[in-house]
Amino acid sequence: MSEPDLRDTFGNFLVEIGKKNNNIVVLDADLSSSTRTSKFAKIFPNRFFNMGVAEQNMVGTAMGFAISEKIPIISGFSVFTTGRAWEFIRLAAHDNLNIKIITTHSGFVGEDGSTHHALEDLSLMSTLPNLKILVPLDNIELVQILKYAIVNEGPFYIRLPRGSFPEIHQKKYRFSIGKPDLLREGEDICFIGMGYGSVLSIQTASILEKYFNISIKVINLPTIKPIDKRELISQIKNCKGIVIIEEHNIYCGFGSILARILSETHSIPMKFIGVENSFGQSGTRESLLNFYGLNKENIIKQVKDLLRIT
After folding, report:
1. pTM to 2 decimal places
2. With bands split at pLDDT 50, 70 and 90, how would you rate the model's confidence at 1?
3. Which of 67, 78, 210, 251 falls between 20 and 30 A from 56, CA-CA?
4. Among 154, 189, 171, which Cα is nearest to 269's?
5. Number of C-alpha atoms within 13 angstroms, CB side, residue 220?
6. Which CATH number among 2.102.10.10, 3.40.50.920, 3.30.479.20, 3.30.1360.140 corresponds to the domain 181-307?
7. Sign of CA dihedral 113, 53, 131, 94
């Protein structure tokens, strides 16, 4: 049985938190059936606002709600929310307003085409002070992240995919802001991922251990910003090499952030798997992931390079 889409878990969470907190309001940009905020709209029509295809107005309105001590939750597709409304998001971050930006359809979204893929959003959002950026690995982690964001003041950006990810965590898992999430112990090579990158890491680690006769550590990093530097360095300091995997452009992306942090104290070889300076194209999600090298074959190649295997 496949896992529910993360956006469905998000929609269900909105309904549950809406029942508990009357200050929750939800704003969407005419995409509520896709983002699943329609679930909240059905139960709480007076606290839901469809702003139309007007992401800037949506964020501006949310800023007003935040100033009025409401807790606005903004949703839409990742590429349009972060792209069209970036200046307004910057203002919200500048004033450290209590706004929660939770978008769906990040990374590759399939046949909708290159205009709808969100492969630059983490770069855009990471430049903004005060903004916390979270990317869940599965539904269990998503619920933990959503609970954390709602009860903690300040602006958040939470990045969700269009579809589902397999369940990796156990029910007892507890999210901790900034902390590396150790999924698998190992000593030779360390895979570091976020979102689908972590899924791919854990799915391929045992296969590659047998292939290369080495030990592979897997770290999921759900917090893009802030990152607990000391804990991250402690986790990787004894490894011989690192492979960083992200469903995002590798230029100024997740890997670039980690490389800067780690290079300050450790000289360690790194390889980066992600989209290389491309907007993507139309195709099924699976075919796009394979075309752009987010697959086992490319991981094998990168590990070979790290180990200098010919």
Report:
1. 0.96
2. low
3. 251
4. 189
5. 26
6. 3.40.50.920
7. positive
